[in-house]
Design goal:
This protein is α/β, with parallel strands linked by helices and about 250 residues long. The chain has a single domain, classed as 2-enoyl-CoA Hydratase, Chain A, domain 1. About 45% of the residues lie in helices and about 15% in strands. It has a 6-stranded mixed β-sheet with strand order 1-2-3-4-6-9, sandwiched between helices. Strand 2, helix 1 and strand 3 form a beta-alpha-beta unit. Helix 1 packs parallel to helix 3. It is globular and about 60 Å long. The termini are far apart. Bound molecules: coenzyme A (COA).
Length: about 250
């Protein structure tokens, strides 16, 4: 079965991470499938709302680390950037249902969602520094904007997980529910939205978001640093350590 499942019902496209054996980590082909699905959702009048969801035990472990090593994103046309630009500029409502860990892009993609629901087992983290990398998905702009600078600095410099209640307090999450209920809850909210006039939803979102140019520019800027850092010794040490199931040693870097 595919690692990304898409399903359209009652005006709602649901995009499901379906790679549980690898903790829903995301490969290049999964980004491509999601970018295509988001583009299709934007163009198809039968889709009024999109929901991202994972499993009740894990949302996503972020980028597939092996994939990073074997085929690092090289150009702005790489599937990951296509996906990120797709969600950052998506006109219709985007929702996410998050249970369990949401690592790296599993958290940063949520800055581009309009409504986020979390299971009480949700654990958000942006461990880019711990991987010898820098933020992506415009999170270096959007996390300080949403959380306030010091809380964003804690999340992005320490890279430690923060949990559902804290995520709700900083405004990343709208509502916390039991993990077994989060996908159903998000789906019910999406259906309520899908029954509303789409033109009003689109106009309201556009007015709230304003000009996305700064976001897209920050994504490009981050993407350039990220791409360079992926090839540098700190990231190589971090990824090597992950593959070998040991602690990384940055003492000489
Ligand atoms: N890329 C590739 N494989 C991954 C992965 C990732 N990001 N995250 C998990 N996996 C794989 C593991 O290698 C393991 O594979 P194996 O069974 O072949 O050994 C399998 O998924 C299960 O992972 P495991 O770490 O044993 O699960 P866990 O429940 O103990 O921990 C996480 C779950 C998400 C906390 C942990 O897997 C993790 O921290 N992953 C890395 C997250 C990360 O750094 N992502 C990059 C962000 S930019």
């Amino acid at each position: 079965m595919s690692d990304i499942l898409t399903h359209i019902d009652a005006g709602v496209m649901t995009i499901t991470f379906n790679r549980l054996d690898k903790k829903n980590s995301i490969t290049s082909s999964m980004y491509a499938a999601m970018a295509d699905a988001v583009a299709q959702a934007g163009a198809d009048p039968a889709v009024r709302v999109v929901v991202f969801q994972g499993h009740e035990s894990i949302f996503s472990a972020g980028n597939d680390i092996g994939d990073f090593l074997n085929q690092p994103p090289s150009t702005q046309e790489s599937p990951v950037f296509r996906f990120l630009r797709g969600i950052a500029t998506f006109e219709k409502p985007l929702l996410a249902a998050v249970a369990g860990p949401a690592v790296g892009i599993g958290t940063t993609m949520l800055f581009h969602c309009d409504l986020v629901y979390a299971g009480d087992n949700a654990a958000f983290s942006m461990p880019f520094v711990n991987l010898g990398l820098c933020p992506e998905a415009a999170s270096s702009l959007l996390a300080p904007r949403m959380f306030g600078y010091h809380r964003a600095a804690e999340a992005l410099l320490m890279g430690e997980p923060f949990f559902a209640e804290a995520a709700q307090e900083v405004g990343l999450v709208n509502r916390v529910v039991p993990p077994t209920e989060v996908n159903g809850y998000a789906q019910a909210q999406a259906r309520k939205l899908a029954a509303k006039p789409l033109s009003s939803l689109i106009a309201t979102k556009r007015l709230m978001k304003g000009d996305q140019q700064a976001v897209l520019q920050k994504m490009d800027e981050e993407g350039q640093s990220f791409g360079r850092m992926l090839r540098e010794p700190a990231a190589k040490e971090a990824f090597g350590a992950f593959m070998e199931k040991r602690k990384p040693d940055f003492s000489k870097l």
